[in-house]
Amino acid sequence: MIQLPSFSRRRAVLTVLASGASSLGLFSGSARAQAFPNRPIKLLVPVAAGGGTDLIARVVADALSRTMGQTWVVDNQAGAGGQIASQATARAAADGYSLMLGYVSTHGTLPAVRKLPYDTQKDFTYIGMIGGAPNVLVSNAVRGPQTFQQFLQDVRANPGRDSFGSAGAGTITHLVFERLKVATNTSIVHVPYKGVAPVMTDLLANQIQYAMPGLAGALNYIRSGKATALAVTGPRRHPLLPDVPTLKELGVPDFEAVQWVGIMGPAGIPADVGQKLTASLNEVLKQKELAEKLTSEGIEVMPMSVEAFRSYVAADSVRWREVVKKSDIKES
């Protein structure tokens, strides 16, 4: 019998052990993905209940619950422009059970105005894009102007008198209005809230005079005749508001903004679990019923690869940094 040298025997044993460990790892990952999810998945939503972003979260969570056979629990954690929910997500266990509805404010505009205790690219696992909608300039239907021209005349005649509400400092509903102020050379006071729903409540009570929520958050108020849509920020008129002109039509050049939404989790979610979440999201986005429900609320479904989603968010953040620079908003 041929005897292997002792070091050769050790190497052979280590090779076998390594091969077994590798196989065990592959098996473990496969088993984990098959078992996932075996308990409810929490979806943090960084705005107050009742607004457009919250509505999107609940519609998508309901569809994912049915598709994955496990409950998705929506947990609203508003405040600090979305920083509270984002920070909680970044620090959560990277097991796929703690996710968030990230959107343009949390990962696009907020990093442009604030030093954050987390990195919006490195500290998150990107699961997938859901879709986007334009913002809408709205006024009180009874006491406010009924056209964009009347809006300009009024605010220019009374600089600093009127106010606009946003879902929080640094959110898109804040920065998109700051961009409008610069473009139109107007002075309107900013009043931050914790979400779009309380903004619209005070708009209807005439506590504030204007707002620029996403279409999903404004649509019900416009349809009910409580708020007047003066303009949209999209590249073209929206089919749900065909009589409302774009800002570009109204003479505000190069003015486009999209309020995108997607799903993210903490960095380090196992690849197999992340892939299952992404596949499930893409599956529900293909469902006609879900697409119609989102479309009826002003959201255009925007499916894309995880890599494309991450790149889209990074580029969007750069654009909003430029807005902050031109608006002379100081980083906090």
Describe the protein's architecture and organization.
By secondary structure, this protein is of the alpha/beta class. It folds into two domains: 40-131 and 260-327, Bordetella uptake gene, domain 1 (D-Maltodextrin-Binding Protein, domain 2, 3-Layer(aba) Sandwich), CATH 3.40.190; 136-232, Periplasmic binding protein-like II (D-Maltodextrin-Binding Protein, domain 2, 3-Layer(aba) Sandwich), CATH 3.40.190. 46% of the residues lie in helices and 17% in strands. It is built from eleven helices and eleven strands. The strands form two sheets. A six-stranded mixed sheet has the order 2-1-3-10-4-11, with helices on both faces. The longest helix is centred in the first third of the chain and has 30 residues, at 6-35.
Q: Can you list the strand order of the major beta sheet?
A: 2-1-3-10-4-11
Strand tally: 11
Question: Class of the largest domain, according to the CATH hierarchy?
Answer: Alpha Beta
Element order, helices and strands? HEHEHEHEEHEHEHEHEEHHEH
What is the CATH H-level superfamily of the largest domain? Bordetella uptake gene, domain 1
CATH topology call of the largest domain: D-Maltodextrin-Binding Protein, domain 2
Runs in which pLDDT lies below 50 for 5 or more consecutive residues are 4-8
Strand percentage, roughly? 15-25%
Structural class: alpha/beta
Radius of gyration: 24 Å
Overall shape: globular
In total, the number of domains comes to 2
Distance between the termini: 76 Å
Helical content stands at 40-55%
Known CATH architecture of the largest domain: 3-Layer(aba) Sandwich
Number of helices: 11
Average pLDDT number: 89
Main pleated sheet: 6 strands, mixed
